[in-house]
Design goal:
Elements lengths: L1 H28 L6 H18 L4 H23 L7 H24 L16 E3 L2 E3 L1 H23 L1 H11 L1 H6 L4 H18 L1 H8 L6 H15 L4 H21 L5 H15 L14
Antiparallel strand pairs: 1-2
Length: about 290
């Protein structure tokens, strides 16, 4: 049972991290970037290139992922969002999905469809026994990284001028512009931050998932489910939603059948949204019409 719980924690940490990327963009721009998980996929290949091909140290690989991810996030915002300022969320959904397809296609052309092994940078790569279950040290490290990201996102959004400006923009874009907030620059920065963050964590994910081009679409859906459960715009909601999704997925896979995992996640999502349509930690927004 504990081994299943550890697997659930790792999956939940992965979904949480991608959901945080969704939230960073959503808070600052009010849009959903469905190319988000593709940054994590590119982070896996960045880890493979840096750690396995060139044997760079971990800090350099993380920095490489941060810079490249920010650059791709810049292109993402410029190509898929910037020229659709008044066409509504449906246009933005289509263009971000299109950008994700573009990233995946280029990755397949560059790296192929065969997964590549990425070894952990930790000295001990063997599973250890902890509280009666078997777990790999790098899975625990990924959990710690996810918790640090959630804590950092919470501090950034609630206790810095930049975060408060993003929250103000999410609440009322026009009023924020009138107050002097450069919402376009804020939106661009959010896309760059989300892209850099998810590519930078690649070395912590890759030892478990391997470097593969096929991880993006499924990860996008599960992270979006996690964000929907926790509530849009809430870092702690992303954590609770991600861990809930990981736990449900792991338990269903163990006690029922792995074929029912996606169905169980859908049932969990519907149950939460029926009780709280805005998510566990989301806030109800009332508008006059």
């Amino acid at each position: 049972m504990m081994t299943t719980l550890y697997a659930a924690l790792f999956a939940g940490a992965l979904y949480t991290t991608v959901a945080i990327g969704f939230n960073i963009v959503f808070i600052s721009s009010g849009t959903f970037n469905f190319a988000q998980a593709q940054y994590a996929m590119l982070g896996l290949w960045s880890a493979w290139i840096g750690l396995e091909v060139f044997h760079w140290n971990l800090a350099l690989v993380i920095l490489l992922g941060l810079v490249v991810g920010a650059a791709i996030g810049f292109l993402n915002e410029r190509m898929a969002i910037r020229f659709l300022p008044s066409k509504g969320v449906h246009g933005e959904l289509v263009t971000t999905v299109g950008f994700s397809v573009l990233i995946t296609g280029l990755a397949v052309a560059a790296f192929g469809n065969n997964p590549q092994t990425v070894h952990s940078v930790l000295s001990g790569n063997e599973a250890i026994t902890l509280l009666g279950g078997r777990v790999y040290p790098y899975e625990l490290v990924m959990l710690v990284v996810a918790l640090l990201i959630v804590g950092g996102a919470e501090l950034l959004s609630r206790h810095t001028l930049l975060g408060l400006a993003a929250l103000a923009t999410a609440e009322d874009r026009v009023a924020s512009i009138l107050k002097g907030i450069n919402v376009r620059r804020l939106q661009l920065g959010a896309y760059m931050l989300a892209g850099g963050l998810l590519m930078a964590v690649g070395p912590f994910i890759a030892p478990v998932t391997y470097a593969t081009t096929g991880i993006g679409d499924g990860l996008n859906i599960k992270a979006f489910v996690a964000m929907s459960i926790g509530g849009f715009g809430s870092p702690k909601g992303a954590l609770i939603g991600g861990m809930s999704a990981g736990l449900v997925e792991a338990l269903v896979g163990r006690y029922l059948n792995s074929n029912f995992q996606n169905l169980a996640l859908l049932i969990l999502l519907l149950a939460v949204l029926m009780l709280r349509p805005y998510g566990l930690f989301g806030e109800r927004v009332e508008r006059a019409v």
